[in-house]
Amino acid sequence: MSSPVIELDDVTKVYPLPAGDVVALNGISLSIDEGEFVAIMGPSGSGKSTLLNQIGCLDRPTSGNFFLDGKNIREMDDRELTDLRLSSIGYIFQKFNLIPLLSAYENVEYPYIMKYRKNDDTGRVRDLLALVGIDESLSTHKPNELSGGQQQRIAIARALVNDPAILLCDEPTGNLDTQTGAQIMEVLSDLHRKGRTVIMVTHESEIAAYAERTIVIRDGRVA
Ligand SMILES: Nc1ncnc2c1ncn2[C@@H]1O[C@H](COP(=O)(O)OP(=O)(O)OP(=O)(O)O)[C@@H](O)[C@H]1O
Ligand SMILES: [Mg+2]
């Protein structure tokens, strides 16, 4: 029996702006089971990234409750949330967010150092780079010396370095050509087969088809 790893109960997110409040999420209730592969779709501005940020504990809801592994994140302090983010959640950002001055290898190692306060001496970083198809000579390159697809692979390896149970991806193939996009989707599907919970925002129905279930968001609500 699978159990919900993510549960949102009437979650709202309001951005207060001088011109008036922006209601980005307007009463979202949903539940995602451990090991599910879910796509989130919806028009631009409908609240997809805001929703992913909530699930990724990058932000707290304005109202409503969000349970991760049965724990209400409202009851956690900033430190607990940071620990949770480092250990349980891998985040693949749409624009990669790699650190420009670090090599591919060092980018992947970075969250490991944040968590364990030491360099990786287990070979994990090297193995992950191999898993996403980055060979040793490329691992010394800086992000601006790599193609978009290679940068995306490094972002995936980085998201996996602390072995998170949940993988969040915001338009993982958004900037890639069709063939590279398909390769990235194979990597994500494989991680899902190995038991990870994968939640992915996408505009493309061909990409959403890799997931088991699609949640459509419109005007900050589940459509
Ligand atoms: N930091 C912010 N401050 C104020 N308003 C914001 C902020 N972030 C998002 N919004 C607004 O909240 C709404 C939802 O934005 P969000 O980024 O979640 O949309 P999205 O579905 O991811 O869109 P896209 O497909 O274009 O990436 C939009 O109206 C947006 O302008
Ligand atoms: Mg977005």
Q: How does this structure look, described?
A:
There is one protein chain. The protein has 223 residues and is of the alpha/beta class. It has a single domain (36-50, 78-222), classed as Rossmann fold, CATH 3.40.50.300. It is built from seven helices and ten strands. It has helices at 48-55, 78-88, 104-116, 124-131, 148-160, 178-193, 205-208, and strands at 4-17, 20-33, 37-41, 63-68, 71-72, 89-92, 166-170, 197-201, 213-218, 221-222. The strands form two sheets. A six-stranded mixed sheet has the order 6-7-8-3-9-10, sandwiched between helices. Strands 2-1-4-5 form a four-stranded antiparallel sheet, covered by helices on one side. Strand 1 (4-17) and strand 2 form a beta hairpin. The longest helix is centred in the last third of the chain and has 16 residues, at 178-193. It is globular, with a radius of gyration of 17 Å. The model has no long low-confidence stretch (mean pLDDT 93). Residues 48-49 line the site of magnesium ion.
Pick out its properties.
alpha/beta, 7 helices, binds adenosine-5'-triphosphate, Rossmann fold, about 220 residues, six-stranded mixed β-sheet
Q: Sum up the overall morphology in one term.
A: globular
Order of helices and strands: EEEHEEHEHHHEHEHEE
Percent in helix: 25-40%
Name of the CATH class: Alpha Beta
Number of discrete domains? 1
Mean pLDDT: 93
Let me know the CATH homologous superfamily.
P-loop containing nucleotide triphosphate hydrolases
Q: Give me the count of strands.
A: 10
The structure class reads alpha/beta
Please, how many helices? Answer: 7
The CATH architecture: 3-Layer(aba) Sandwich
Which hetero ligands occur in this complex? adenosine-5'-triphosphate, magnesium ion
- Profile the largest sheet: 6 strands, mixed
Strand content: 25-35%
| Low-confidence sequence ranges | none
Amino-to-carboxy terminus distance: 27 Å
The value of Rg in angstroms is 17 Å
Give the strand order of the largest sheet, numbering strands 1, 2, ... along the chain: 6-7-8-3-9-10
